[in-house]
Write a structure and sequence with these properties.
single chain, 218 residues, alpha+beta, Aminopeptidase, two-stranded antiparallel ribbon, acyltransferase activity, transferring groups other than amino-acyl groups, Trichothecene_AcTrans, GNAT_dom, Acyl_CoA_acyltransferase, N-acetyltransferase domain-containing protein
């Protein structure tokens, strides 16, 4: 079952959201994000909406997908965001869109409180560098087939071409694939989920990768 890497299109967002939901099904943070018990939208719909907003409004985002060509099925996806210093300075003066309720005509989508907590951890880490942000997920049925490495490698090579550092906030489950692509752990922060209704904690692992010369690619 060969895997194929390509750019994700807006029409792929529902499939991406379904894969993300399957990949995050056992994650405590995902349960803390679910707003249905408070009359909000289901988490999968929330992720789909956020992805669509990113597609439509953020030109710095690059979405990738990995397709199992035999099944003709999206099995993994990643988001890379390439951020320059002047854009970062401009963003610092703005209120992050996900730190407040998103209001649409006749509809309000409150942001899960846990996302605000995660955002603060990320912003504190991000303030130490300028670079590209990475996020990758793989459907559980297709993990350990190399899809995640394909997605991460693409972004690393683009960051190298631009001479940019790359940074991300990894989970314990995902840290291994990033270590294989020369990311290094810079800090670890424990996010207490009890204030968000979940009797658990989540380790947020700040990772950084410095640009490499083309000769070092393998």
């Amino acid at each position: 079952m060969p895997l194929e890497l390509s750019f994700m299109e807006e029409a792929d967002i529902p499939a991406f959201a379904a894969v993300e939901a399957a990949a995050m099904a056992g994650w405590s943070v995902a349960r803390a994000m679910d707003m249905t018990s408070r009359g909000g939208e289901p988490r999968q719909e929330m992720v789909e909406r956020w992805a669509r907003e990113g597609f439509q409004n953020d030109s710095q985002q690059v979405w990738l997908k990995v397709i199992d060509t035999e099944l003709d099925e999206l099995v993994a996806a990643a988001l890379w965001r390439f951020e320059l210093a002047d854009e970062r300075a401009q963003d610092a003066s703005l209120v992050p869109a996900r730190d407040a309720a998103v209001e649409l005509p006749g509809q309000t989508h409150p942001v899960p409180d846990v996302m605000v907590g995660m955002g603060k951890i990320w912003e504190a880490f991000k303030n130490e560098f300028v670079g590209g942000q990475a996020f990758a997920i793989t459907h559980p049925h297709h993990q350990r087939r190399g899809a995640a490495s394909m997605l991460v490698r693409w972004g690393c090579e683009k960051a190298d071409e631009r001479g940019m550092v790359a940074a991300l906030m990894a989970t314990e489950a995902g840290v291994g694939v990033y270590l294989k692509h020369d990311f290094h752990v810079l800090n670890e922060t424990v996010l207490d989920l009890r204030p968000y209704g979940i009797d658990a904690s989540d380790l947020r692992i700040g990772m950084l990768r410095r640009p490499m010369s083309r000769e070092n690619w393998s």
